[in-house]
Design goal:
35% of the residues lie in helices and 19% in strands. The chain has 413 residues and is α/β, with parallel strands linked by helices. It has 3 domains: 274 residues, Rossmann fold; 26 residues, no CATH class; 83 residues, Orthogonal Bundle (DNA Binding (I), subunit A), CATH 1.10.30.50. Helix 1 runs parallel beside helix 4 and helix 3 runs antiparallel to helix 4. The N and C termini lie far apart (61 Å). The chain binds S-adenosylmethionine (SAM) and zinc ion. The site of zinc ion has 8 residues, from strand 15 and helix 11.
Length: 413
């Protein structure tokens, strides 16, 4: 995936993310479903007619095979997510876990100077912020951006809910940020000393003031300046939850440079891809809905053929940053046997080398690759119990068996 320029993938983003090289992307914007418990469908007659996606979550949405690494690398996060069941119920817990699995992989593919913007709303933003704090580190939290807008509302028992939240994190403490690329004009403010462009700074000399005026000001972390797409006839496709191009333009200009790679793993009708293309960035869009891809192709080709240079794929790319090793290579088994000290990676029983099987920790069908880091040796019994399931399942089976055995021993005494 890392050689050509622009890619659109159709399928569950987690499997593609597994196959992207580490540190290969400069900027990630994601606008996942918000757990609003709705099914979104495009209006009949719109460009996007026929597209829909669900925003309701259950345990079935969790890919248990992929849970394993999260348990090992983020145990506190897993404890926190488990606690959500008691606070907010199982569907929210399933949603947050689903997001955590993906956010963890996003961090891996992001370059050291890269940034990530997670677009969500108050339904789950408080839970997602904790996920981001744990995965990216709380010191790498940069902004909670509030996109505020107006739209009709029937709300009379509380204030109409008219804002989204965009959580901005970086991967490290040195990151790309182009302040001058996103400055906006100062607004005139009325003060009791007369009119000023700078509020309290009325004392500035006119030269300095002109310089400031010319440069423009940095937008604050609340963004009232982008209308919802419903009002933007020119760019409206009818795709449910489509975001305005200008909002993406600000994010992309601020946090990437020309030629950089921008990834949107929940790209919908490809607003991020269109904005990236217009700003001379490379892009990768992923969406699970095939209909979304048809719409994207249409939207891209509408733009005077400027999107000829992209590849649409359903299959997983190959990782190019890790050597591919065939599991049938004899030296590989011997090396792993030595590394594991002749013990099974699950039950820890010692065996002869011929009694071990090479297992893919993440199955190939889920984007797991034929690389050394995705292999382990299991004894025949553990391998049979695990099958295509996660290690967590195997460990719980082993724990139950050990428990039973110790009870039998105590009873026997
Ligand atoms: C809120 S919409 C994104 C809208 C987009 N920002 C735009 O401007 O059109 C969320 C999208 O995520 C997609 N989606 C949901 N789960 C996904 C998954 N596991 N992998 C990839 N896409 C997914 C849905 O099909 C939907 O298009
Ligand atoms: Zn074993």
């Amino acid at each position: 995936m890392n050689k050509a320029s622009n890619y659109l993938y159709t399928g569950d983003n987690i499997h593609f993310l597994h196959r992207f090289d580490s540190e290969s992307v400069d900027l990630i914007y994601l606008d996942p479903p918000f757990n609003s418990k709705r099914t979104y469908s495009a209006p009949i007659g719109s460009k996007a007619a026929g597209t829909s996606f669900k925003d309701m979550w259950s345990w079935d949405d969790i890919d248990e095979e992929l849970l394993e690494t999260l348990f090992i690398t983020h145990p506190c996060l897993v404890d926190f997510i488990k606690s959500i069941e008691g606070i907010h119920g199982k569907p929210m817990m399933a949603y947050v876990l689903y997001m955590a699995q993906r956010i963890k992989e996003m961090r891996r593919v992001l370059k050291e100077a890269g940034s990530i913007y997670l677009h969500c709303d108050p339904t789950a933003s408080h839970y997602l912020k904790i996920v981001m704090d744990d995965v990216f580190g709380r010191d790498n939290f940069r902004n909670e951006i509030v996109w505020c807008y107006t739209a009709p509302s029937g709300s009379v028992k509380s204030f109409p809910k008219k804002h989204d939240i965009i959580l901005f994190y970086t991967k490290s403490d040195e990151w790309t940020f182009n302040a001058d690329a996103v400055r906006i004009p100062y607004k005139k403010l009325n003060t009791n000393k007369g009119q000023s462009h700078f509020g309290a700074d009325v004392s500035l000399s006119s030269k300095v003031r002109d310089e400031y005026l010319h440069r423009g000001k940095m937008p604050e972390s609340w963004w009232p300046d982008f209308s919802p797409v419903g009002r933007l006839k020119k760019e409206r496709t009818g795709y449910p939850t489509q975001k305005p191009l200008d909002l993406l333009t600000r994010i992309i200009k601020a946090s990437s440079n020309e030629g950089d790679v921008v990834l949107d793993p929940f790209c919908g009708c490809a607003t991020t891809c269109v904005a990236s293309q217009q700003l001379n960035r490379k892009w990768i869009g992923i969406d699970i809905e095939e209909q979304a891809a048809h719409l994207l192709v249409e939207r891209l080709s509408d733009d005077a053929g400027m999107f000829k240079d992209f590849v649409h794929r359903f299959d997983f790319p190959e990782r190019t940053d890790l050597p591919i090793e065939s599991p049938s290579k004899p030296e590989l088994k011997q090396a792993m046997f030595d590394e594991q000290g002749g013990k099974c990676n699950a039950c820890e029983n010692e065996m002869r080398i011929v009694d071990f099987h090479i297992d893919h920790i993440i199955p190939v069908s889920k984007g797991g690759s034929d690389t050394r880091e995705n292999y382990q040796l299991l004894c025949g019994n553990c391998n049979m119990i695990k099958g295509n399931r996660p290690m967590e399942y195997l460990r719980s089976k082993i724990a139950k068996r050990d428990n039973l055995l110790s009870q039998q021993i105590t009873f026997g005494r």
